[in-house]
Write a structure and sequence with these properties.
By secondary structure, chain A is mostly helical. Chain A is built from 13 helices and no strands. In chain B, α18 packs antiparallel against α19. The chains are: A mainly alpha, B alpha+beta, C mainly alpha, D alpha+beta.
């Protein structure tokens, strides 16, 4: 009886298109509602004075804002450093656990734990761990006989950025790990069997089979992480407030200050469009780089 | 009709689940309380919360207290003010924010409310510096708030160590420096000094008393920046000297690291807020019970001046129960209620309470606190203070982290502050 | 055998720094203040106290916060998974003209590129104007918006890895597309779905900024706001904050444990193809 | 049910995958779509299945237009090259799936699964997952999933290409018998001409999206409609030599070659300027001694397969092959003489490729 109804519903192409529309509409609607109004609102903000007059002044000011330049540069360093480490470590862990191993479930669950910790708690606890006098890190190093007098972590002008990156790596490597593991587990087995017959070494198997097959997953993982890294705010705000001496100030922190602390929402909006533009360019580049060389996943 | 390709049972099930869940989430909030108050989470908030419970019992007015994290209290309240949500009937605010809040024009002036009650204004038991920060412009403008917690900076020092090394309580910063070096030399595990030098509000708050004592200032009487003065540079140089007798990594310290060093007995002196006074003699928190003394902030070229840091109660214009709110803040800041609040650990803003015998017995620091509060100064009163404080904080932090010398740091901060003032004529 | 030993060695080396901060949070939540900063650190031998847990539950409304967080995170995750999986399926499998799938995907992703610092104010106004300020529903909608790009991009990737013939076979066997999605495709991407669900839940559970701005009273406030309140102006309430942190991690941890089952399933399937 | 393609065209952007296809499959008939990779045969099958939209033209099932119906409304059963077994379901569940979708009663499903499993010798495998099966077993499950219900037609997409050669011959026979006994209209796609010739009632040869020839297997073999069909069907392929016709001598001439032509071909050849001569290897006679009119060649390679021997030899610049009885053997570079069976010569227009006449 379903069949008779079926025949009415017409063209195949049209039916699929209608289904696509139906499946996409709710998500697109939600996202549009939540992003369109804020976007237009911010565009208007960035181009007006507090009295409502149009002005390009906020964008002009950005060019002479050296602090923002520094913050942007540090955002890149932060993003690049954290992303590279998280990808490398996440991949390593995923590969290690992508095998039958006694206690695998336990390891996997425990490795996810940092991601579960509320970022506020994580940041505060790391501030404590990093403390040169009471901190667990220097304390442990000292008991191992290491001289820690120069190790100031987040308090050192030179070590601060690396230290906040480390916290990010601690908290978010599990994300990479989880996603890459899920990706690894859904890879087909045949190429591996074939490679085994061909006598490939482990490294060759990874380079020639695992990595190319895993690349779509890597793309998604890296992309999603990238977007959050470029906007990093909470944990640095609590760890260092951008200090010492601006050494860990990121673009988001700077935008936040201008918008909320200095109550200059107009300039904050203008700054954020610079960040938005950069984010767009970087992610497009990344998509092209990681996706471009993948054999098209479309059906032949 | 459902299209044939939809598995109907699934769809119906899904829709039902979602409907139930959504209904469960937008049920109306329980009966609206008659007053809602946004407070700073912490000891001040706790006191007000206890007061609110008393108030409710006594007057039958429900008072709901919303604790908000200090780090985000400012923007939370500001967004509420700017958009007149009317969500809060009373705001508890830190006094340096007053110019910024008042500049929005969204605070209710209190004088007319006093007039309605046939009162001329707040009684004169309130300490003058505490009332001055409630006015905008500072000192003689409209009254927008009443002072609830009378914080001002205090100097903490280890009496036992001072006696051990034959030192007197320091009156000047030079003495502080000498004592710090002596103690660090003698006690291998106790640093001479500890301060908040984390970028932002912290390092600026700890620098201000030094700056004032050395005869410098951020803005002069006409509002021009004067941070490049020799006095200011000398003050920062001295701060860096203190840094050398402070624990490593002090450039990232905030209040809790400072307190931890004091309470664990690993630092001998510090400027701190009175909030820590009860903890000092509490054995569950402190390893130095009874060993810490309090004095006024040391002086130098000029007499020592502490920064004031009061918590104020104000009423947003957006409130729909202005009169009820006014009744509450009047009640909460009256002598009896403030005494109870002081018992709960908050310094009062009334002279009579600082002189109250039973409170003095409980808090040995009260005479010093009174003196400190009476002679205290506010941080510069300008709506631009957040921005200026930020720039100053960055460069002070750069100096403390060793990236810039004192002179360079202040000269650059000075230049930036000129820019800020130029941008906002 | 020696290989196996190496694997274990590496895993333990990874676990140590991973778990240490967590262990430390747990101990702090049980230590009295004076022990929290003891030098040298007290690893095991300290007098455990329940005062911090008592504080957050009986002095502060953390039970309420926990409930709010739970409702908000669970509903938001469920909604995001349903909407996102549907959209991801369409983007992966129903090609539209002129590369629209790709453009749309990128647009969806781009909604996550705007710094939240900037969207918070207009979103606040939007939520206020539709009268949803200070409701859990507002938080749910916002979190769905937050997590949708994640769900769509992650699930799209997983869908693309399922061989199209499997689905076509189901169509030929007489399924509708949606039925094929339910019977064939979804079971095959279950590991991905589990990973995505865990992830969504964590985002919604731990979100702070929007929860702070969009809620106004304790009745709807969520856990992260409550936890942040333990970092006060003068001090960090280490004990209470750690206790709340431990408490906050527990439900998500239990969920992750439950989702484990599906994470492994992918492996036992082995070859998806042929 | 009979199936009819009328002017069916499929374009992917600029690329024409299938051009103006007209094809009718009789009820109960097995038609094989044969052609090299990318010739459009799979596209035709997928359009018929409803998995691919038709750009223009109509497809009929009986008298009903099904061009735009969904796959399930068409009610065909399909076997995929990769089998597309559901990896998360057991063999029994795989077999049962088409029935479950149709809301059959549980007991009916169980009975039917049992029956089909018995028929395909899958009974002992019912509880296994696809990954635990051998290639041949997977193939049988895929087949079982198709025959478990009574579809309007079977669509088979290279079903034998993924199993090893020995099993393939066996499955080929099974398939042929099964189709015959079920009597269901069947479309079968393959690139293997032996499969096509042995299985089909009729073969449709395709190249670059264009139907080249439709006919019974022996007609395709013996009367190829054009050069492509001639070259594609048959193993080893037909010998093809391009040249011209010398009407005065009544012979085909190419460099180094001169082949007398029978009268019928001579008449046909008048239509074309250049022609291609074709002759199947089994119509090439080969000997060590010369006879009158025979041509000289030199052996390139000689392959014995038992029953017959394939000889590849050079004649001037041409490379030709001959199929001779298995008793004969030749050495590398051995001098040989050859001639073509005049009754089985094919002539094609070299310009259009069409067979003459």
């Amino acid at each position: 009886m379903a069949e008779t109804q079926e025949s009415v519903h017409g063209e195949l192409g049209r039916a699929d298109r209608r289904l696509a529309l139906l499946l996409l509409a709710p998500a697109v609607l939600v996202l549009f509602t939540l992003s369109a109004y804020p976007l237009f609102y911010s565009i208007r903000l960035s181009l007006t004075t507090p009295t409502g007059a149009w002005t390009p002044g906020h964008f002009q000011r950005i060019f002479s804002d050296r602090l923002f330049g520094t913050a942007l540069l540090q955002t890149f360093l932060y993003t690049a450093g954290a992303l590279a480490l998280e990808l490398a470590l996440g991949l390593l862990l995923a590969l290690l656990l992508n095998r039958s191993l006694a206690g695998r479930n336990l390891f996997r669950t425990l490795l996810l734990l940092p991601m579960l910790m509320p970022p506020v708690v994580a940041a505060v606890i790391w501030r404590l761990l990093y403390n040169p006098s009471f901190g667990l890190i220097n304390g442990t190093l000292q008991s191992l006989g290491v001289d820690t007098s120069g190790l100031l972590w987040i308090a050192g002008q030179r070590t601060a950025l690396a230290s906040v990156i480390l916290v990010d790596v601690w908290q978010w490597t599990p994300f990479m790990f989880l996603l890459l593991l899920a990706g690894l587990q859904s890879l087909p087995a045949e190429p591996y069997e074939a490679a085994q017959m061909d006598g490939a070494t482990r490294w060759q198997v990874f380079r020639d089979i695992t990595w190319p097959l895993l690349r779509p997953t890597v793309l998604v993982a890296v992309l999603l992480r990238l977007l959050d890294l470029l906007r990093v705010f909470d944990q640095i705000f609590i760890l260092t407030e951008g200090g010492p001496g601006f050494a860990t100030e990121t673009a988001s922190l700077y935008i936040y200050r201008n918008a909320f602390r200095f109550v200059n929402f107009h300039y904050g909006a203008a700054l954020s469009f610079v960040l938005l533009a950069i984010t767009t360019v970087v992610s497009l580049w990344l998509i092209r780089m990681l996706r471009g060389r993948t054999p098209a996943a479309e059906r032949s | 009709m459902l299209p044939g390709w939809l598995p109907k049972t699934d769809l119906v099930f899904l829709l039902l689940t979602l409907a139930v869940l959504l209904l469960g989430t937008c049920q109306p909030s329980p009966p609206v309380p008659q007053l809602t108050i946004a407070v700073n989470a912490g000891v001040e908030g706790d006191a007000l919360k206890a007061a609110a419970a008393d108030y409710e019992q006594r007057f039958g007015v429900r008072v709901q207290i919303v604790e908000l994290p200090y780090a985000n209290l400012f923007e939370k309240q500001l967004v509420d003010l700017l958009n007149r949500t009317g969500a809060y009937d009373v705001l508890m605010l830190d006094d340096p924010w007053m110019p910024r809040y008042a500049a929005t024009g969204e605070l209710t002036p209190l004088e007319p409310l006093f007039a309605q009650k046939a009162l001329t204004g707040p009684d004169d038991d309130f300490l003058a510096p505490c009332l001055a920060v409630c006015r905008h412009p500072y000192g003689n403008g409209n009254l927008y708030a009443l002072p609830y917690v009378g914080n001002s900076q205090l100097f903490f020092y280890r009496q036992d160590l001072f006696e051990k090394y034959g030192l007197a309580a320091p009156k000047t910063w030079a003495e502080v420096g000498r004592a710090a070096r002596a103690i660090l030399r003698g006690e291998r595990k106790v640093y001479g000094y500890v301060m908040r030098a984390a970028q932002g509000n912290a390092v600026v708050a700890d620098f201000m008393p030094l700056l004032w004592a050395f005869g410098g200032d951020v803005l002069d009487a006409q509002g021009n920046p004067v941070l490049n003065s020799p006095e200011a540079i000398a003050a920062l140089q001295f701060m860096l000297e203190l840094g050398q007798v402070s624990p490593p990594g002090y450039a990232s310290f905030n209040a809790d690291e400072v307190a931890a060093h004091l309470l664990q007995g690993t630092a001998a002196m510090s400027i701190n807020w009175p909030a820590w006074i009860p903890a000092v003699d509490d054995p569950s928190k402190s390893r130095v019970v009874g060993k810490i003394g309090f004095s006024a902030v040391p002086g130098g070229k000029r007499a020592g001046v502490a920064a004031i840091g009061n918590w104020l109660l104000a009423i947003p214009r957006g409130s729909r129960r202005v009169e009820l709110a006014f009744d509450f803040i009047l009640w909460a800041t009256n002598s009896e209620q403030m005494r109870i609040s002081a018992e709960r650990g908050n310094p009062p803003t009334r002279r009579s309470l600082f002189q109250n015998a039973s409170l003095r017995a409980k808090y040995r620091s009260y005479p010093v606190q009174l003196h400190s509060l009476e002679t205290s100064r506010p941080r510069p009163r300008t709506p631009l203070w957040n921005e200026i404080e930020n720039v100053l904080g960055v460069y002070l932090s750069k100096a403390n982290a060793g990236e810039l010398g004192a002179e360079d740091a202040l000269r650059q901060a000075h230049a930036q502050i000129i820019q800020i003032l130029k941008r906002n004529p | 055998m020696r290989r196996q030993a190496w694997v274990y060695l590496l895993l333990v080396a990874a676990l140590l720094p991973t778990l240490l901060p967590i262990y430390w949070v747990v101990t702090i939540s049980l230590k009295s203040v004076v022990d929290q900063f003891a030098v040298p650190p007290l690893w095991f031998r300290f007098a455990a106290t329940g005062e911090h847990y008592r504080d957050i539950f009986f002095v502060r409304p953390f039970g309420r916060y926990l409930w709010n967080s739970g409702v908000v995170a669970a509903v938001a995750t469920l909604l995001a998974l349903v909407l996102g999986t549907a959209a991801a399926y369409a983007l992966a499998r129903l090609p539209m003209k002129r590369n629209w799938n790709r453009h749309l995907s990128f647009w969806i992703l781009s909604t996550r590129m705007i710094p939240p610092i900037v969207t918070i104010l207009p979103l606040f106004l939007l939520v206020r104007d539709v009268g949803l300020l200070n409701t859990r529903l507002a938080l749910i909608v916002v979190y769905v918006g937050f997590t949708l790009p994640f769900v769509i991009w992650m699930m799209r990737g997983f869908f693309e890895e399922v061989p199209p013939e499997l689905e076509e076979a189901a169509l030929m066997d007489g399924s509708s597309r949606l039925r094929a999605l339910r019977d064939i495709v979804l079971p095959l991407v279950a590991p991905g779905l589990a990973a995505t669900a865990i992830f969504c839940l964590i985002i919604a559970w731990n979100e702070f900024l929007f929860a702070l701005i969009l809620t106004q009273t304790d009745t709807v406030m969520t856990l992260p706001v409550g936890i942040a309140g333990r970092v006060t102006q003068y001090e960090i309430k280490w004990g209470a904050m750690s206790a709340a942190g431990v408490l906050a991690m527990l439900p998500v941890f239990l969920f992750a444990l439950a989702a484990q089952r599906y994470l492994v399933r992918g492996l036992s399937l082995g070859a998806v193809k042929g | 049910m009979e199936i009819r393609f009328e002017h069916v065209t499929k374009n992917y952007g600029e690329v024409v995958a299938v051009a103006d296809l007209n094809l009718e499959v009789q009820a109960g008939e097995l038609v094989v779509l044969l052609g090299p990779t990318g010739c459009g045969k799979t596209t035709i099958l997928r359009m018929l299945a409803g998995l691919e939209a038709v750009t223009s033209g109509e497809i009929y099932l009986g008298e009903r237009v099904i061009t735009h119906l969904s796959p399930r409304a068409r009610d065909f059963a399909m076997v995929f090259q990769s089998y597309a077994l559901y990896p998360h379901m057991s063999v029994a569940e795989n077999l049962a799936y088409p029935l479950r979708v149709r809301h059959w009663r549980q007991d009916q499903i169980a009975a039917t699964v049992k029956q089909v499993a018995a028929r395909l010798e899958l009974t002992s495998l019912l509880a296994r997952r696809p990954r635990e099966l051998s290639g041949g077993e997977r193939q049988r499950v895929a087949l079982g999933r198709a025959i478990i219900r009574n579809p309007n037609a079977f669509l088979l997409d290279e079903p034998l290409s993924n199993i090893d050669a020995k099993l393939r011959l066996q499955m080929r026979m099974e398939l042929k018998h099964l189709q015959h006994s079920l009597g269901v209209t069947t479309l079968y796609v393959t690139h293997d001409q032996a499969e096509a010739l042995t299985l089909a009632h009729r073969v449709a040869v395709l190249q670059k999206g264009v139907l080249q020839q439709l006919g019974e297997p022996m007609a395709i073999y013996h009367r190829p409609a054009n050069l492509f069909v001639a070259g594609f069907v048959g193993s080893p392929p037909m010998n093809l030599v391009e040249g011209s016709v010398d009407f005065s001598a009544a012979a085909f001439t190419a460099r180094d070659l001169r082949v007398p032509l029978p009268e019928a071909l001579l008449t046909a050849a008048r239509q074309a300027a250049r022609v291609t001569l074709g002759v199947r290897p089994e119509r090439v006679r080969l000997a060590r001694q010369a006879e009158t009119g025979w041509l000289a060649g030199r052996v390139y390679v000689c392959e014995a397969t038992g029953n017959e021997t394939l000889v590849s030899f050079r004649a001037g610049e041409h490379r030709l092959s001959a199929r001779v009885p298995g008793t004969q053997r030749y050495d590398f570079e051995e001098a040989v003489w050859f001639t073509f069976d005049p009754a089985h010569l094919h002539l094609f227009d070299a310009a259009t490729g069409q067979a003459l006449p």
